[in-house]
Amino acid sequence: MTDLAEQGSRVGQERANRLAIDGGVPVRSEPLPWELPGVHWIGEEERELVDRVVRARSPFRFYGPDPQHMVETLEREWCEAFGHRNALGVSSGTAALTIALSALGVGPGDEVFVPGYLWVSCLSAVVRVGAIPRLVDIDETFCIDPEDLKRKIGPHSRAVLCVHMSGAPGRIAEIAEICRAHGLGLVEDCAQAAGASVGGRAVGRFGDIGIFSFQLNKNMTSGDGGMLVAEDDALFRRIVALHDLGYPRNEKGRLDSSDEACQLWGMGARMSELAGAMALAQMRKLPRITGAMRASKWRIREQLADLPGLSFRHIPDPAGDTGPFLLMLLPDAALARRFVEALRAEGIAGPPGSLACITMQEWGMHWYFNVPSLVQRRSNSRDGFPWSHPANAFAKDYHYGVGALPRCDEFQARGALLAIGSTLTEADESDIVTAFRKVANGLLR
Ligand SMILES: Cc1ncc(COP(=O)(O)O)c(C=O)c1O
């Protein structure tokens, strides 16, 4: 090679290595697909089932001119697919959480453990039933740390709301064991983890009650919607009454107030047949949706395993991960911000409005101290309920601001997240890996 050619190729190499954020050439120019996993799979099957409901003019599950039994079929197939004894379609995951805590009889005088990495709905469910949220720290699984849970159990502890965050469970079997040993109820929030499992056991089968969400961001979607599962038949009967108008129904679909054990106050959170039809078509695709995300995510993760300064969330059973998010940790908050900005400049970003590649600092009400109504102890009523309830006086010194959970605070500061689309191509995966290696090389060496 002539001196000139050598110089030219060195300049070319330098330009290729220069980060896009510093004026270099980006790895890709096309946005990555939207994260919303089920959305890409909506097609003829959803249309056919929804059409059937419309043609039958029967969008209500319990009676009507010609009910198509979409919600009932969804519940039956859900049980068959995941090994649950009872399943109930509902209008949302948020409603399902409140119903679950009410079904367990949780109320004033009780504290419910919730992790600091969660979604605002987990807190609102506890507060709406009149109980007190008690924060528990997370561990490297980004889910409840069983050691912190054990340390905090006290006379008012009543239940644990264990959240399988970002698609995968943490140490759920240990948490279930702690709940059993201390007589605590266990609700599994599987909103972000439909189709996940540990050791072949589906999420929602470790606790007393499991809840799921079918909102747009979830592994499968009906726009809005959710599911409750429970093994115990009597508990499930309460759940059914609570999700409706406070009473079970007879075989004609009419309210039945004859059972004294089931005269309650309902949530009005029934699932419509239209949502049931959508959810049924989506659940039949769920193994393919989660299979695609899991495969993409672990292929990417394995190719990044050797990068110094970048570490990933610990997932105890990768086979049971559903794969929608790659969670990572950088050495400090400044590097986390710079790393994500640099990735986005390389084209590792979704379409406008998507949250495909972000720092944990941009992840809003997934972190306890970003929920103003928790930190400020807001109430929906004039009297400050439930914070003002005399039976809740035990919690007057509980602190919900930054500093309450050191591990959460640290992971929020130096964490980052890449959403894994359910339709990534080989080329998308290869661009992601190339961009990560390029940025890590530039910033983390
Ligand atoms: C962990 C978690 N719990 C509960 C919910 C509430 O579900 P929904 O939006 O269906 O009310 C969500 C999602 O929104 C969630 O991510």
From TrEMBL:
Keyword annotations of the record: Aminotransferase, Pyridoxal phosphate, Transferase
Enzyme type, top EC level: transferase
Superkingdom classification of source: Bacteria
GO molecular function, one term: transaminase activity
EC id: 2.6.1.-
Transferase found in the keyword field: yes
Parts forming coiled coils: none
Keyword Transmembrane helix among record annotations: no
Similarity section: Belongs to the DegT/DnrJ/EryC1 family.
The protein's name in its UniProt record: DegT/DnrJ/EryC1/StrS family aminotransferase
UniProt source species: Bosea rubneri
